Hints:
Helix content: 10-25%
Order of helices and strands: EHHEEEHEEEHEEEEEHEEEHE
Strand content: 25-35%
Number of helices: 6
Largest sheet: 8 strands, mixed
Number of strands: 16
CATH topology of the largest domain: Heme iron utilization protein-like fold
CATH architecture of the largest domain: 3-Layer(aba) Sandwich
Shape: elongated
Distance between the termini: 68 Å
Radius of gyration: 24 Å
Oligomer: single chain
Amino acid sequence: MGKDVSKVTTTFQFCDGGSCKKAKSELAVREARAYLRNENLWDTTHTIRTRCNGRCEDAPTWIVQPGNFWYKNLTPEKAIEIVESHTKTKEPIKEYLLYKEGDEQLNTDNEKTIASVFFKSKEDAEFGAVLAARASASDQYIYPVFQKLFKTENTLDVFYNNEEYHITEIHSVSYSDLLDVEVTGNNINFKLAVGPITKAMEQDIDATILDRKVGVSEVIWFNNNEKHSGAIRLKNRKGKHLITLYIRKENTDLWNYILEIYLKMDIKNPRILHEA
Length: 276
C-alpha cells in the first residue's frame, strides 16, 4: 500500500543526480530516512529522490517543502539537523541554505555561468560566407524546436537524407521513445535520436541509433539568400549531416523564435562577434 499523502506535512526532495552521487549524497539520505523511521515521523513526512535538482555546483542538494527551502553541500551530520528542525520546529537551518523564498540571490560560492552563444563570421563549405552560431544539441532544446517548427502553422524547407522537402502542414512530433524524436505527416517523416547517450552507454546502443544521434547543432544566418533568413543544421557526433531546417524570410516570427528562445538572444541586438 502506498503512503497516505493526506497525512504528509513535510516533503524532502533528495537530489541523486550524477554530481550529487559523486559527492556522496546517498550517505545523507540514509541518515535522514533512518531518523524519520526511528522518530516515528515516517507517516507525516515524504522523501523523494529527484534525479537532478539543477544545482550541481552545490552538490549534494535538497529541497524541503513547504517553504521552498533549498539546501547545499549536504553531509550526514547536516541531514539530521535539517530533518529535525523542519519536523519539530518547522524552521530551516539558515546557515546551510542555498536559497529560500524571498531571497534575491543564491547563497553560493560555486556559481557557474553559462557561456553565451555568439554568431561568428564563417566561410562555410556548403553556404559560403555566413554567420554561424554553435547551439545546444540537448534534447531539452532540440525537442521544443521540433515542436515549434512542425506542430505550428509554418512554411518550412527541409533537407533530409539527400532529399528536399517543403513543409506546408502541421506534423506530429513524438518523443515517447527513450532516445528518438519522430516527426510524421504528409510532407515528411523522419526520426532522430536526441536523448542523452553518455560515452559509457555507447557500447550498449545500436549503431543505427548512434548514427542518427544529434551531436552538433549549428544555426546559420545567411548574408545574401533571397529565400531563407537562416537554417538549423544538425550533425551526429562524427560530423555526418543529419538534417537541415531552413527558415523562410517571410516567416519572421519563426526566425525570431530561433534567436530569442533557442539561442537566448535579444532579437533587436543579437550577439555577433566581430573580428578585430
